[in-house]
Amino acid sequence: MSSGDKIIIRTVNKPSGKDTEELVNWFCRVFGLSGEKSEIEPVLLKEIIKTSMHGEGTTSKVLNEKLDLPRSTVIYHLNRFIYSGLVIRRGRRYYLRSEDMESTLEELQSEIDREFGRMMEFAQRMDSLFESDAYARSRRWKERRKG
Asked: If you average pLDDT over residues 51-79, what whole number do you get?
């Protein structure tokens, strides 16, 4: 995975409505980007979605001016979006990972499937090591009983 060695799996409650605000807030919470009452991240995500769907992306300067926040705060939150896998940076512009949310989540799902495939290889190797270790211990124990 591109964002480090951490995997968190949790069950999430589905949003109740079809309101854009509620869905954007829900995605921010699900990806651990904002709390229940946070306003910055949903506004950033909406802006990134809108500009990405038009193929334009957005800059930290535009978001800084639009939200009237310090640029360092905007960049901090944009980096969190990048870390989550939802957003990528090309040059000075920030985009959804793909052209829309559905495609973005499909790409994330493919990456997760690929990573879990790699993890399965390591799990099999670990099982093999435990089995050989258990066999060796059992053999030593039997030899001690005979001796």
From this structure: 93
Residue 100 has pLDDT above 80, yes or no: yes
On the 0-12 / 13-18 / 19+ scale of CB atoms within 10 A, 111 is middle
Which residue range forms the structural domain that includes residue 57? 20-99
- Residue 13 counted as domain residue: no
Q: Is position 132 within any domain? A: no
Confidence of residue 32 (pLDDT cuts 50, 70, 90): confident
Q: In the predicted model, is pLDDT for residue 41 greater than 80?
A: yes
Alpha-carbon gap, residue 5 to 70, rounded angstroms? 31
Q: Cβ of 127: how many Cβ atoms within 10 Å?
A: 10
